[in-house]
Amino acid sequence: MDPLDELKQLVYVAQDHSRDSQLELLWRITDVLLRDPEAYSDHQRICFGEIIEKLAYDLEQAIREELSRKVASENHLPHHLIRRLALDEIAVARPVIEQSPVLTEDDLVEIAAEKGASHRLAVSR
Hints:
It contains 8 helices and no strands.
């Protein structure tokens, strides 16, 4: 699909504020970023991350769990997004804590110090 056509479709979906449209927008934007994250500048990836984060945290935890599994092992995702997922409920946090190359050692130490035993167990893995 032509990138301009894809952008037009995303804008159209974004105008509908229903839960289903917001969910569709979340997955489509996530897929665009994951398709070739290195094609975007750091600033652009941060913008993608902010949009993904806003959409994901407006939806229920099960959606964040799925998002976390989907992005856990990706190298070029915004640190802020991955860190927020890692600090979420353990069902959301576990995949990124255990797999994400984006999290730093300092992040893992902070997560272990701030969160409960389940998070510490995930950090230890």
